[in-house]
Amino acid sequence: MKKGLYDSPLGRMIMTAEKDHLTGLYFEGQKYGVDSDGDFACTDDVPVFRETARWLDLYFNGEKPDFLPPLHLRGSDFRKRVWEILLTIPYGQTMTYGEIAGRIAEEKGMTRMSAQAVGGAVGHNPVGVIVPCHRVLGAGGKLTGYAGGLDRKEWLLVHERKGRESA
User: Fold this and answer.
1) Could you list the active site residues?
2) What is the pLDDT along the chain (167 residues), one digit of tens a residue?
């Protein structure tokens, strides 16, 4: 596994990659992240880190990136499905844990699905910001649950709202 660093307006982020795919993007010190120990590759030396940095530069400059770096998300089928749904939440918009649970329940022909189970999958998203787990809210639009910290989640949501308003 290769590690790289990205300096965001919200603090340093750690990128991880295997082969040519991004496997992780975490704020330094976040819950369920990777440690900042070890050797880090120069971003320019790893193509997927260059692509990720380009995506993040656009995003943090208030633009909506029109591409994804190549991703390799590891997890159970359930978690992967939740993360796929996260990728469908439009820039500047939100969804609730319950809405995601309802969508999965419908797909599986079930009467209901646990929003808490969805919350666990969202919380273990290995590629924060790019796979936009910050766009998921609690019931009634309550700001809840973000491994990178609620202050960062709120910042990201406000940042995207401003980006949508200026577009």
Assistant:
1) 133
2) 899 999 999 999 999 999 999 999 999 888 776 766 677 777 788 999 999 999 999 999 999 999 999 999 999 999 999 999 999 999 999 999 999 999 999 999 999 999 999 999 999 999 999 999 999 999 988 998 888 889 999 999 999 998 767 65
Please give the angle made by the CA atoms of 11, 81 and 117, to the nearest 5 degrees. Answer: 80
In eight-state DSSP terms, residue 42 is -
Distance between CA atoms of 43 and 4, rounded to whole angstroms?
Answer: 6
User: What DSSP string runs through 57-74?
Assistant: HHHHTT---S----B---
β-strand pairing of 2-8 with 11-18 = antiparallel
Based on C-alpha coordinates, what's the Rg of the chain? 16
